[in-house]
What does this fold into?
Amino acid sequence: MRHIAVIGSGPAGFYTAEAALKTFGSEVRVDLIDRLPVPYGLIRSGVAPDHQSIKAVTRRYEGTASGEQVRFFGNVTVGQDVTVAELRGFYDAVVTCTGAPADKRLGIPGDDLPGVIGSAAFVGWYNGHPDFAGLHPPLDGETVAVIGNGNVALDVARILAKTPDEFAGSDIVAHALEALRLSRVRHILVCGRRGPHQIAMTPKELGELGHLTRAAPLVDPAAFPPAADDEALDPGQRKSVTLLRGFATAGASDKPVAIDFRFFSSPVAILGTDRVEGIRLEHTALGADGRAHGDGHTADIPCTMVVSCIGYRSITIEGLPYDDKSGHFANEDGRIGGIGSGLYCAGWARRGPTGTIGTNRPDGFQIVEEMAKDLPDAQGKAGGEGLARLLAERSVSAVSFDDWRRIEDAEQGRARDGSPREKFVDLAEMIAAIRPA
Ligand code: NAP
It folds into this structure.
């Protein structure tokens, strides 16, 4: 029997497990280890709560976890409860699929002021991630600056703009829904350091901004290159740019909330003494290298919160080499430490935060293909039995997939009307749902 440990139970972890089952058939056992008592990683804590159709992919993951061959070890932190070296002793292969859960820093003066929040924290807050449930983002001012021109910036702007009614059917957590109900934010600046042709926003997500109850996008027509230049864009990007041009043509709306796109605007300082009071944006132009270059002209805009949506980094794990420059685990084609080490990584932990959820599927399959070549024979290791014994010795209370189902039942049972679930946002609450005191 071949034993594989997968660290992280998000999309990359589940696709790696699925690939292992398809490749090795009945001759494999896969254990998914997660530091949280709940599975699904980015699907639960990253995908926007009003995008339930994307979250529905967890049904596929449930299918993967349903048989005897896949086991969930939730509430177990690798590097703390068990080391990578110990996992290598128990398993033929260890695949790190821990994603990229830490925010990249802006790296400008004032970026540590209260009120500067990274998107991992802000998204984690409205999605009920236990690490960020106590965030209390300051929604008491009129203007918020959202930095970045990717889909995460769009998610953040949309969530800030929606009315409580527009969250019907979503699983936004109660604390966020209430804070957003009381929010005084009316002006959401979306700052891109480059132009409309360089956005990383997809048409479906951008299009949603045109259908909000009390908010409308605001785009300066002067930001665009000549329309003929759109022909050179790939079809998806052209669609997004066409949507932006439509927003620009529509002009200012009489809706009370504006999602105000500022292109060629690079943040150079966050202003304030005890908290965020404003942001300094420098005007930029595209250089021949395709990058944004500041032209020295700056504008100070008062705002009370800055959400930076500029990308993520993986979090290090003791015993695994890390590429600090790229912000993910050091690897070659997903192998960590070369052939024979038995160490691999997949998903964002391998390549950084790019692509859609589905991009992680081929990633998982490719890793398992390499694994089959590197390790043609099972090595008679102890697998999950060995890990379970070690965790019991250390009094680590691991959460099984059946336990998770009970947490899920409890979350569904306490959902508000029309919502699929009300998540527990506290580790102790999750554990109490399966092991009442
Ligand atoms: P992203 O797509 O890489 O976008 C990051 C943005 O931040 C870019 O516009 C980038 O500008 C900007 N940026 C980076 N450093 C900056 C700096 N120092 N100052 C100002 N701007 C800076 O990343 P993301 O939005 O975090 O999304 C991550 C991945 O998840 C993407 O693949 C995304 O498509 C995916 N996602 C998908 C969905 C969905 O499908 N619904 C939702 C959320 C996320 P430059 O281009 O100039 O570098």
In short: Residues 106, 147-153, 155, 192-194, 198, 200, 202, 205, 266-267, 292, 309-311, 353-356 surround NAP (CB under 6 Å). The two ends are 38 Å apart (CA to CA). Residues 235-250 form the longest helix (16 residues).
